[in-house]
C-alpha cells in the first residue's frame, strides 16, 4: 500500500500544548506511544519544519504500510508548508494525507471522518489545502464544541481544556487515534462506518 502521512495540527511550544487547538497533536502523541515494540519519540525532520516518527502498521490484508506521523513546528496558520514538504519528501499523494484537527462544529469528544470539503474557517486546514493544492485529503475531526456565551472562538481554541473536559480528554484522544489506525488498515469508508456508528 502507499505510504500514509498522518499530521496532527497545533501550535508549537509548551504554552499551547494542552489547548483545544492542539488536540490533533495530542492524538499524534498517542499514536507514537502505540508503536511497537517500544513507544517512539518524535525527532526533527531536516527537510521540513516538522517533528516525525516513521513506523509501519499492519493492514487488514495481512501486509504492512509505511506510516509517517508528523507534528508541524510552525504555527497553525502556516501548517501547510511542513505538510507539503513531508508529502514531497516521502512521495505521499495528497489523497494519502490524514490531518487530525480540532472541530468547533462538533460536540466535545465527537469524532468524524471525511475526505475533502471546506475548511470552516480553520486556518490550519486553509493552509494545508493551499500548500497541497487540493482539498482532497482525509480529515479526522475531533470535536471541541462551541465557546460558551459570547466568547470569541479564536480565544476559545487557544485556551486550555477545562477540568471537566480533561476528564474525557484521554478517551477522546484514544478514540481519534483508533480512527486513524482504522483508516490506515481498512480504508476511509470502513473507518467511517465503525467510528460514526459509535
Automatic annotation (TrEMBL):
Task: Please provide, alphabetically and separated by semicolons, the GO molecular function terms listed in this UniProt record.
Answer: peptidyl-tRNA hydrolase activity; tRNA binding
Q: Which organism is it from?
A: Corynebacterium lactis RW2-5
Q: Which SUPFAM superfamilies match?
A: Peptidyl-tRNA hydrolase-like
Gene transcribed to yield this protein:
pth
Q: Does the keyword tRNA-binding apply?
A: yes
- Catalytic activity field: an N-acyl-L-alpha-aminoacyl-tRNA + H2O = an N-acyl-L-amino acid + a tRNA + H(+)
What's the Enzyme Commission number for this chain?
Answer: 3.1.1.29
What highest taxon heads this organism's lineage? Bacteria
Q: Where does the UniProt annotation locate this protein?
A: Cytoplasm
Keywords for this entry? Answer: Cytoplasm, Hydrolase, RNA-binding, tRNA-binding
- Biological classification of the source: Bacteria, Bacillati, Actinomycetota, Actinomycetes, Mycobacteriales
Task: Supply the name of the protein.
Answer: Peptidyl-tRNA hydrolase
Summarizing the function annotation, the protein's role is: Catalyzes the release of premature peptidyl moieties from peptidyl-tRNA molecules trapped in stalled 50S ribosomal subunits, and thus maintains levels of free tRNAs and 50S ribosomes.
Amino acid at each position: 500500500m502507499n505510504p500514509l502521512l498522518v499530521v496532527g495540527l497545533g501550535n508549537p511550544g509548551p504554552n499551547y500544548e494542552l489547548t483545544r487547538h492542539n488536540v490533533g497533536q495530542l492524538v499524534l502523541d498517542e499514536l507514537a506511544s502505540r508503536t511497537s515494540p517500544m513507544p517512539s519519540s518524535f525527532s526533527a525532520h531536516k527537510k521540513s519544519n516538522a517533528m516525525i516518527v516513521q513506523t509501519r502498521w499492519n493492514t487488514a490484508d495481512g501486509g504492512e504500510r509505511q506510516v509517517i506521523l508528523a507534528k508541524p513546528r510552525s504555527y497553525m496558520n502556516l501548517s501547510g508548508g511542513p505538510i507539503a514538504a513531508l508529502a514531497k519528501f516521502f512521495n505521499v499523494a495528497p489523497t494519502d494525507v490524514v490531518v487530525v484537527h480540532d472541530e468547533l462544529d462538533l460536540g466535545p469528544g465527537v469524532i468524524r471522518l471525511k475526505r475533502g470539503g471546506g475548511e470552516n474557517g480553520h486556518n490550519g486546514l486553509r493552509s494545508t489545502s493551499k500548500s497541497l493544492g487540493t482539498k482532497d485529503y482525509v480529515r479526522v475531526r475531533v470535536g471541541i464544541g462551541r465557546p460558551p456565551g459570547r466568547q470569541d472562538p479564536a480565544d476559545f481554541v487557544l485556551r486550555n481544556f477545562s477540568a471537566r473536559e480533561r476528564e474525557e480528554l484521554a478517551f477522546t484522544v484514544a478514540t481519534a487515534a483508533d480512527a486513524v489506525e482504522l483508516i490506515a488498515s481498512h480504508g476511509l469508508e470502513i473507518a467511517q462506518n465503525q467510528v460514526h456508528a459509535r
